[in-house]
């Protein structure tokens, strides 16, 4: 990985395992449960530079997804993942380790999001990994935002895993060469090419990995969208911070509120989104 020119990461350990997280983007880059292999995937080509999103880990997408609903917003996936967050809390007690960060914005900070807000992000490590993103409208005007925790998971081989929990869910296929098309999932999700889907799903999702012999169970609260993403061969080659041959070893399962599920907040209101991951051995 490139030499960091941002503040070094915060490393925390407890009996439940260890985590590593940067103030830059409040970006989690490592979670290793006790007596288990790493769960979070990082690109060997990731860049650790001011103003640049880190490839891998858990980027925080806020206040818009992609280029936003208007289709022309920059930077891609919003500004939260490229700004430095402020460390709010850091503690370790027995099996648990907790670290939280805050990010504040005013109406004059960004022309694409001219609203006052306060965001808080908590990472809690215990027997599982628990992530909570809270957004509060601290201004006088209502606003709408999109959000997602863009979690990259380390897997044995994307061609051999399958994703359970999305049967009968409708999704927007962002990789279809004929354009954005709404489809319906039948059975488990399996990977045979580039996959970029926004599912209308708030339910539990499971990554079944026969090579690493484990199931990763993902639970969400106040999250109406589930994104499943793998760039496959050609897309991986177009990304300068993603190794050409790294795509088989990762899959993204994001929890969020996107597109028609964007969150609307009146002045003084707040929204909490929770995302947790449990690791269970197979066999």
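^ Assign residues to that structure.
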């Amino acid at each position: 990985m490139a030499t960091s020119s941002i503040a070094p990461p915060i490393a925390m350990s407890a009996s439940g395992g260890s985590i590593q997280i940067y103030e830059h983007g409040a970006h989690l880059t490592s979670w290793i449960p006790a007596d288990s292999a790493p769960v979070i995937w990082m690109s060997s080509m990731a860049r650790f530079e001011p103003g640049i999103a880190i490839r891998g880990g858990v980027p925080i997408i806020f206040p818009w997804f992609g280029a936003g609903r208007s289709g022309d917003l920059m930077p891609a996936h919003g500004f939260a993942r490229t700004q430095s967050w402020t460390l709010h809390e850091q503690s370790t007690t027995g099996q648990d380790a907790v670290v939280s960060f805050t990010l504040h914005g005013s109406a004059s900070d960004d022309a694409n999001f001219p609203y006052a807000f306060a965001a808080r992000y908590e990472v809690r490590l215990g027997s599982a990994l628990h992530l909570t993103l809270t957004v509060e409208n601290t201004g006088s005007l209502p606003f709408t935002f999109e959000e997602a925790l863009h979690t990259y998971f380390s897997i044995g081989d994307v061609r051999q895993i399958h994703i359970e929990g999305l049967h009968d869910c409708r999704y927007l296929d962002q990789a279809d060469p004929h354009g954005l098309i709404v489809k319906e999932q039948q059975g488990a999700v399996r990977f045979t090419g580039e996959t970029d889907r926004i599912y209308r799903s708030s339910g539990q999702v499971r990554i079944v990995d026969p090579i690493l012999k484990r199931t990763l169970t993902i639970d969400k609260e106040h999250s109406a969208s589930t994104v499943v993403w793998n760039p496959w061969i050609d897309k991986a080659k177009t990304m300068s911070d993603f190794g050409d041959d790294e795509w088989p070893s990762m899959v993204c399962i994001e929890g969020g509120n996107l597109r028609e599920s964007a969150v609307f907040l009146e002045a003084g209101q707040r929204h909490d989104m929770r995302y947790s991951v449990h690791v269970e051995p197979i066999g």
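The CA atoms of residues 230 and 280 lie 23 Å apart.
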